Structures are given as structure tokens and as C-alpha cells.
Amino acid sequence: MKAKFDKELIKKYDRPGPRYTSYPPATEFTEEITADHYIKKLIESNERKTPLSLYFHIPFCEQRCLYCGCNVIISHRKGIEVPYLERVYKEMDLVSQYIDKDRKVIQLHWGGGTPNYLEPDQIREFFEEIRKRFQIDENAEISIELDPRYLTDEQIKVIKEVGFNRVSLGVQDLDPKVQQTVNRVQPYELIKTQFQKLRDAGFQSINVDLIYGLPYQTKESFERTVDKIIELNPDRIAAYSFAYIPQVKPHQQLLPKEALPSPEEKLAILEMIINKFQEAGYVYIGMDHFAKPEDELAVAQRKGELWRNFQGYTTKKGVELLGFGATSIGMLYDGYFQNYKTLRDYNKAVDEGEIPVFRGYILNEDDFVRREVIMDIMCNLGVEFKKIEDTFGIDFKTYFEKELEELKEMEDDGLIKIEEDRIRILPVGRLLIRNVAMVFDAHLRKKKELKFSRTI
């Protein structure tokens, strides 16, 4: 089902809202949830015998990209990563002692920062340390984020050798003026060369990240970027909306505010992105993601089995995620747990032999029901009433009587169709699935002010 673009409806429904990488969102995390709660939930998770997903945050970058909203540490001076890695190994010891050894890891991801900030020998050592503590399934999805500017032939060789099978290249924009402005200069020829080297190395999947809404971007200039990306033929594409938040990320004050695309221009860019990638044969998965029809994300969506976690869309529903490193978030079936954000606090906790969790959230019964509904809307473009009723022992229409009434305006606007046994997202509603999901968000109703990115 291809998305349809309706500017008037987008303007009508454009408002702040969660991205629903979890439900409840991270805004509900509280420091009342501690490492002791995490330990308790880790032990309980062994009873479910669910497979595991591991996320490792590598916060270091050689230079600052001015659009960046991530938690990073900028340093040209190599060596500062060494004590950090040692502490991540210790954190793995602190956590893995509570995990049954027969639980397999079927998903593993290195994010950042810049994971290829690490030297080839460090990449090899890091992966060996993970294997010492966890049993990685032979068919595991093992992915890494890469900065093409600093990617060496030796790194490509090593990341393939240790077991990575998916890579994601940060491209953002190929226009030279935009690149200069945001302090990320990487010519198209460099991207093309790195892409070919990764293809030649035999990676199963090569993904590309783009950002729209940057200074000096226009529909025409970004269309040239999109055309070149289509030529490269990546397996997946993520096109993220730039969030201009200089009050939160002071380095964004260095960007020329007057050069940011107007809301109308940004909408035009988004419409072009969606249309061009769909015309090129990519499936619009939702939010900011596109994939080839044979990609497992697209296949899972067609089967109604797609899910979301803090890495975005995933085919691994029911997998429990353990996060390692500063800022990382773990997602167990019934709880979310986040590590300290600053290196100082993270280091202090690990050095004192404590799991470095500083906040989290434990789900209640209502959260479980609403999470399932919201994730089905976000991922599978609708919700089957019987599935929810059978899973949770409720009558859907009674439980969500108020929500179904609220949805009638969206149905009148052509965003959704409320049928006897399900809710379906229609082509016009594809761009506004966050708005549909928000109707079922009980926590959102209690908030006077919404501190989220805008839904479009």
C-alpha cells in the first residue's frame, strides 16, 4: 500500500508526538526505577527463555556534525576509547551473570557516535569480549553504523571477519554547500567507492541514512541526492527529519537559522522523498524508513509481524534487548532501563561494581494492552480486534470505547477505516500513523505540554 500525500491533512494533524520506539515512551522513565529493579527483571526474564538483542553505544566521533542530536564525545585524540571499552566489558560481566547461558543472541547492533572510530584490532577485541559472555546465534542479524569519511579497507575486512552482516552508512545529504554548512564533507565519489567496497566484501544488507530539513536544502537540491542514492541501490533507506533544537543542543546555534527550509519547503522535500523512493520500487515501511520488497522488514510488515524498539523497526518481536554503554536503553518484556548519560556518571557506577542504570519504567497491565495496539498501528498499519481480545482477555470495543469515538474524525478525513473487526490505516493516513497511535496513548492524555518532535 503506497502512501498518499495530502498537504491540508498533514497541516491539520501536525503536532508534537512520540515516535513510539517504545510504549510508554522514554518521557515516562523515572529515576525511581534503579539497577536493583533491572537485576530482578533480568532474572525473571530467564523464565521466558526469550532470545536476546544486544545494543552497544560507542559515543566517540572525530568531529562534530552540527545537526547531530546524539550523545557523543568529540576527540581527534585516540586513546580515550580504551578505558571506555574496558568499562563496557565490565558492564557486560555485571549484567551477563544474571542471564542464562543458553539464551541465544539473535540480534546485535553497534551504534554511536561512530563505531568505526575504533581501530581494527579494537573492533576484533570488542567482538571477542562479547562472544566470551554471550552465545551469538549463527543466523544472528549483526549490524553496525559507519561514517564513510573514516572507514578504512582494514576496518571493512575486520567487521566482515568478526561477523557483522549489515552496515548502515551515514550519508545525510550529498550537496556540497549543505555538507560544508553542517560540517560533514563527504563527496559522492567517496560514498560510491565505500559502498562498492562494502558490496564487494559481501555484506547481506547495506543501508543509507539521510536527513532532510538541513540548512540550504531545497526540494530540487535534495532530489539530486535522492537520485544518486537510488543509483547506489541500498537495501534500506532511512530519511530522518532534522530536529532544530539549539536550546537542547547548543552546537546547533552555529547553523544559519535563516537558511533552514520553510515548513512548506520541508513538506515538499518529504513528499518528493516518499514519491521518488516508492517509484524506484522501495516499500514505504513507515515513519522515515524504506526497504526493498524482498527485505525482511517489508516481508514482516506484509505478514503483520513488524515491531519497533529503540533501534527503530525490527522483525524480532518478543526479543529482549540489553543495552550497554553510556545512554543505552534495555527493553525487557515488562520494563525499560536506561544507563547514565554522561561518561562521568557511567564510569563511576561501573567502577563501583554497579550496573549503571539510572532510570526506567515498569509496565502495568494497561500498558501491555496499549503497547500492542500502538505497535500494530505503527508497524503493521492497523489492528485486528480479535488478536488483542485473545491476547489480553478483553472486549476491544468496550475497552477502547472512548478511543474509537475519537477516531471518527480521522475516519471522516480518510486517514483510517474502522471496520467491524479491525482498524485499517489508509494510504492518506500512512504519514500520520503517529497521530492515530497517539489516540491510544493513556500517558499522553495527562500531559499539559508535549515535549516531542512534530509528527511530520
Describe the structure.
The chain is α/β, with parallel strands linked by helices. The chain has helices spanning 7-13, 35-48, 81-96, 120-133, 153-162, 176-182, 188-201, 219-232, 263-279, 296-303, 343-351, 365-380, 385-392, 396-399, 401-406, 408-412, 433-438; strands at residues 52-58, 60-61, 73-74, 104-112, 135-146, 166-172, 205-212, 236-241, 283-286, 289-291, 307-309, 312-314, 320-324, 329-332, 335-339, 357-362, 382-384, 416-418, 422-425. The protein folds into 2 domains: 1-24 and 364-446, Arc Repressor Mutant, subunit A (Orthogonal Bundle); 26-323, pyruvate-formate lyase- activating enzyme (Alpha-Beta Horseshoe). It has 17 helices and 19 strands. A 9-stranded mixed β-sheet has the order 9-10-8-7-6-5-4-1-13, sandwiched between helices. It has a 3-stranded antiparallel β-sheet with strand order 14-15-16, with helices on one face. A 3-stranded antiparallel β-sheet has the order 17-19-18. A hairpin with a 2-residue loop joins strand 11 and strand 12. The radius of gyration is 22 Å and the shape is globular. It starts with 6 loop residues before the first helix and ends in an 18-residue tail after the last helix.
